[in-house]
Design a protein that fits this description.
Number of strands: 25
Strand content: 25-35%
Largest sheet: 8 strands, antiparallel
Shape: globular
Distance between the termini: 62 Å
Radius of gyration: 24 Å
């Protein structure tokens, strides 16, 4: 007889993926280091290494930012350049943390870190308040539809722990984020350097009665169960061993992006539109009747139809429409501009197709959230609307329905550089009317 973890008295923990964001020197890495240190999630040898590195730089106390800033350039310059992922746990919850850079030129890294997050911690220096990069990070969190946003007003010790300063910043940020469509903002006054309200409640801010950062992270509702969403399986690899033991085996392997698949279920392969039935599902080398989101499986089909890498297997009753005209909100992350008429590669799931930028209907102005119509191009860190024509039909979902199958990236076909991160469908930036250029586009597709 099996024994459950509940019977053993062990609480089942949930997983929270979250990211940090903020301007340069707002204290993101120090906050992460303090969170790890005070929650006793740092190994002794890691702490000793930080203490040695801090002492070599003439610092009296350990620089907790070094727990995440691992690159030599990061330590030399005192900044975060790349996304640093950290895994830690408390008795109440497990965490995957993405510490993202604050520099404007590294905004692309923030997009990467927040793309899979259920919560984003946006730091603000209490001395500076809400700045342009703060607004950009709030816009990206809204664009990526991150369900929960924490505003951590840091360095409260440098402003005398004044409640009025915190309240003003919280009010300004919350109003801005709400206008963007952010569903929830939790404001917390902290000092990452000293440890106020990070893990332990602050004795210096008795006017604040809310949770600490860790308390909020441990208790915020996590609703990332995608097993009830539209079922989607992007095919990564076709398995056909052709051995004496498995002469006729033909399986289609991939990680389930969303939903649940069952043996005997009618499915459609896109973009071809061919239909068949699931005859078997292999998970870790063993047959199962059902498989769900994030499991890596091999699906066997009843009929011998043409399926290859880049195809999408979906339930026939819940198949998305295929289209060659994709309208999306994008964040441009490359140094070179994205202009109307540019030829690009569009990567959606496991499929990459040729595409052309047909129109850029609008660009978002971060200061007042107004839309600049038809700018002609997007430069680095711009957020705007685009209309793209693909060479082949794509089965895309709205990003509002599926963050996995509603997203894509644009790639420079010349050198493989990632140009733009895109989210299909409507967003906080409503598109301007787009003219029909089908008669004068000059392209073959």
């Amino acid at each position: 007889m099996s024994t459950s973890t509940t019977e053993l008295g062990l609480a089942e923990t949930t997983l929270l993926r979250f990211a940090t964001a903020g301007s340069v020197d707002d204290g993101k890495s120090t906050l992460v280091g303090r969170l790890l240190h005070d929650s006793k999630s740092v190994l002794t040898d890691q702490l000793e290494a930080v203490e040695r590195a801090s002492a070599s730089r003439g610092q009296d106390a350990p620089d907790l930012a070094l727990l995440t800033d691992g690159l030599r350039a990061e330590r030399e310059q005192g900044i975060t350049i790349d996304v640093a992922y950290r895994y830690f746990a408390t008795p109440k919850r497990r965490f995957i943390l993405a510490d993202t850079p604050g520099h404007v030129q590294y905004t692309r890294n923030m997009v990467t870190g927040a793309s899979t997050a259920e919560l984003t911690v946006v730091l603000v220096d209490a001395r500076n308040g809400v700045v342009e990069q703060t607004r950009r990070h709030a816009a990206i969190a809204a664009l990526l539809r991150v369900p929960h946003v924490v505003l951590a007003v840091n360095k409260m010790d440098l402003v005398g722990y004044q409640e009025a300063i915190f309240a003003g910043i919280a009010e300004e940020f919350t109003a801005y984020a709400t206008e963007l469509g952010v569903p929830e903002v939790t404001a917390i006054p902290i000092s990452a350097l000293v440890g106020d309200n990070v893990v332990e409640p602050s004795a210096n801010m008795d006017w604040y009665g809310g949770p600490t950062v860790l308390e909020h992270l441990e208790t915020v509702p996590v609703a990332h169960d995608l097993s009830h969403c539209h079922a989607r399986l992007p095919v990564q690899y076709v398995i056909r061993p052709q051995t004496a033991e498995h002469p006729d085996y033909r399986g289609y392997a991939g990680q389930i992006a969303a939903g649940t698949f069952h043996v005997g279920e009618p499915v459609t392969v896109l973009p071809s539109g061919r239909t068949t039935t699931i005859s078997g599902i292999d998970l870790l080398g063993k047959p199962v009747d059902t498989a769900w989101t994030t499991q890596s499986v091999t699906v066997l089909l009843t009929d011998d139809i043409d399926v290859s890498r880049g195809d999408l297997i979906v339930p026939t009753k819940d198949a998305p429409a295929t289209t060659q005209d994709v309208e999306a909100t994008v964040c441009h992350v490359a140094d070179q501009p994205l202009a109307v008429g540019h030829r690009v590669l569009l990567k959606h799931g496991t499929r990459t197709v040729k595409a052309v930028v047909k129109d850029i209907p609008s660009r978002l102005t971060l200061d007042d959230l107004s839309l600049h119509p038809h700018p002609g191009q997007l430069v680095a860190n711009d957020i705007g609307r685009v209309k793209i024509r693909t060479a082949e039909p794509l089965p895309v979902d709205s990003y509002a329905d599926s963050r996995r199958t509603g997203s894509f990236i644009l790639i420079d076909p010349a050198d493989g550089t990632t140009l733009t991160a895109g989210m299909v469908g409507e967003s906080f930036a409503s598109p301007e009317p787009v003219k029909d250029e089908s008669e004068d586009d000059g392209w073959d597709f």
